[in-house]
Amino acid sequence: MSSRFLILPLRKMRSYDRVFRVSTNVSHRKTVEMTEETTFYVLKEKAVPEVLLRVVEAKRLLDSGKCRSVAEATDKVGISRSSFYKYKEDIFPFHDNAKGKTINMVIQLDDEPGLLSVVLKKVADYAANILTIHQSIPVNGVASLTLSVEVRKTTGDISQMIVGIEQITGIHYVKILSRE
What we know:
Number of domains: 2
Strand content: 35-45%
Oligomer: single chain
Order of helices and strands: EEHHHEEHEEHE
């Protein structure tokens, strides 16, 4: 079973809006104050609502040239254009926004000779640049590995790399700590 990761920026908005009615029965909005903060969350695909996954698919169809217009892409994936426009800037596959970034992850693994080497080989197979490695002293046959990886333009799909690491015998889990 493969896992795909998606990043969602969730905007926390604090705004104080006032609606004024004008004599011509037209209303307008005046924003008094607005502060926007963006927090990113990494989610497994199964935790993401279907409409957001369809927005990602529509964006992929547009980027690949398989669809020429937003209307065509949204019809093909079965969502409204308004849903597409509402979420298109708020969701993207993890690997799309990771290029040029540092991914920090923790991996819990069995204390077996050569297992760290297998993990590092998997990272090398995806052409990611390892910046730091820290392995804790094993306790009860299990160690924690903290890995910082630079994602370059030549790096393959990071979400597939993580899935590949998770599938290695002796790996308990892989958790992304941060993306810088």
